[in-house]
Automatic annotation (TrEMBL):
GO terms for molecular function: protein kinase binding. One of its GO terms (biological process) is G1/S transition of mitotic cell cycle. It comes from Adineta steineri. PANTHER family: CDK2-ASSOCIATED AND CULLIN DOMAIN-CONTAINING PROTEIN 1 (PTHR46636). It comes from the Eukaryota. The lineage of its organism: Eukaryota, Metazoa, Spiralia, Gnathifera, Rotifera. This is Cullin N-terminal domain-containing protein. Coiled coil: none annotated.
Length: 138
């Protein structure tokens, strides 16, 4: 019986800043970046259970808001990078005034849009779970 209480005490002991960064955010961040970039060649598989566990532990240890803020920053940063790439393509298209570059720009935009949609389809359930766990605990 005491083992169960020790586990709960461990679970609800707040992370230090460095523990949050190394044990929780860094693995979650790397996985989310892979989802956003859809980089299958460098993809390191990670189970949903592992990600859920890290998100759950972060929530229990008082980092729910920080986790959401970090997620938001990551997605904003990713979208800004895509915007820069699309701006470069647009500039090339305008400079060359060729249909070829217009087609490339349109295909590139569609590709980024599909990549982002696939990533959000994977990321949203992870963090929806976070909200559900937090709400049901209260």
């Amino acid at each position: 019986m005491a083992e169960g209480y020790d586990f709960l005490r461990f679970l609800f002991t707040k992370y230090s800043e460095s523990e949050y960064l190394t044990e929780a955010w860094t693995p979650i961040h790397e996985t989310l970046k892979q989802f956003l970039q859809n980089s299958s060649e460098n993809f390191q598989s990670m189970s949903y259970q592992t990600i859920y566990c890290q998100i759950y532990k972060s929530t229990c240890k008082g980092y729910k808001e920080r986790l959401f803020d970090d997620l938001k920053k990551l997605i904003i940063e990713h979208c800004q990078n895509i915007k820069l790439q699309l701006d470069e393509s647009m500039k090339r298209m305008i400079d060359d005034r060729s249909n070829r570059h217009k087609n490339i720009y349109i295909l590139q935009f569609i590709n980024y849009l599909h990549q982002f949609q696939r990533a959000i389809d994977v990321i949203a359930p992870l963090f929806h779970y976070l909200v559900s766990v937090f709400v049901f605990k209260i």
